[in-house]
Amino acid sequence: MSFLISDAMAAAAPAPAEPGGLPLLFLIGMFVIMYFFMIRPQVKRQKEHKKLVEALKKGDEVQTMGGLVGRITEVGENFVKVEVADNTVVTIRRTAVETVLPKGSLKEM
To answer: Which CATH fold would you assign to the domain 57-109?
Structure first.
């Protein structure tokens, strides 16, 4: 009646598991590799960005994550106002600022 499984295979006892820490060492090694190549650099970038956002002040020339480039005209607790053109002021979140450009960068554009 058993066409797919032979009687000898069905009656065989399972093989005992070999004791050893190789799989455990492999998992620990993979976690360590992921930490140093993925988690640690991301945390470092987050700290640098937080430091940059806290240091924003009026007159800084900035680039946002959306690609807008302008000069900060007003700094609030959560938002900054950026002048992107003459008489054109945009309100953005402080965390949306990607980089602070060197002074005089807007004149080159």
So the answer is: SH3 type barrels. (2.30.30)
